[in-house]
Specification:
302 residues; alpha/beta; Spore Coat Polysaccharide Biosynthesis Protein SpsA, Chain A; five-stranded mixed sheet; three-stranded mixed sheet; 12 helices; 39% helix; 13% strand; globular
Amino acid sequence: MPLAFCILAHKNPEQVRGLVQALSSQRSTIIIHYDQRAPNAERRILQKLAKEHLHLSLIRPRKVNWGRWSQMQAQLDMMEAALSYNKKWTHLLTVSGQDFPLQTVEQIESFMSQHPQQSMIEWFDPFEAGRWKDACERITRWHFDSDALQRILRIPGVGRRIQGLFGWQNRIPFLPGVRRQLPSSFRWYGGSNHYNLSREAVEYVVRDSRAQSIARRLRHVASPDESYIQSALLNSPLAETLSNSDRRAIYWERPDSPSPKTLTLADLPQLHEARKQGKFFARKFDLNTDAGVLQRLASELS
């Protein structure tokens, strides 16, 4: 059962190389989006990597702003590329450049072959689950996805004053004074931005007009990559094919932390337990923080 892997990355091309090596097989398709802002030297490393792997494609990059629609669109671009690139894969898995597999490709293929129609994503009701304290803010505010604004906010001194003026401290910039109604044509869901989707589900979220209608409504929510896929599929005829698990091992220093814990060799016992539980991937890793844990996991998979 061939798989497609979509890697969204923005730094550490050598770490991405190690991830590609772990995911490569005769049957797997790998699609990479590497942020347009990355230095040309890093891009050349990945261009060389694409030439070394027959089933790897490096797609045209976007400037991705964290927590904005551009982050979701980069994933949709990879999904569309995967659909066009290979007609044989049955499931598509999304990973970041700082993920690493806990299972071999063959083990993941074997599991998916037992669930051929199923998609595995995490979902919850943002208002009932208590997971997002800012659920109402996320969906009713009009959030900007502007590269020009991001450049201004990075100017020392200037950016901080602007953020203070509009109440944007530690928040995704939004249009002040504007509140939108909750969606009435569909139910809004949230969840993890790591997905394991059947080919049919990928075709639906990328190409179906009903999904595109939901995408237009969620284009200016905060972190749409944590709600678009869930909302599109759970309001679709494919809802019954979904399993509520992203099969990822992700660890947090604090529940309200904006970024997961960076894993090291000291976390190996947890990672081994996650492998026993059937988790496909763990995150996040940083080659510059602890290369040893990546080397250890790679050796265990070989």
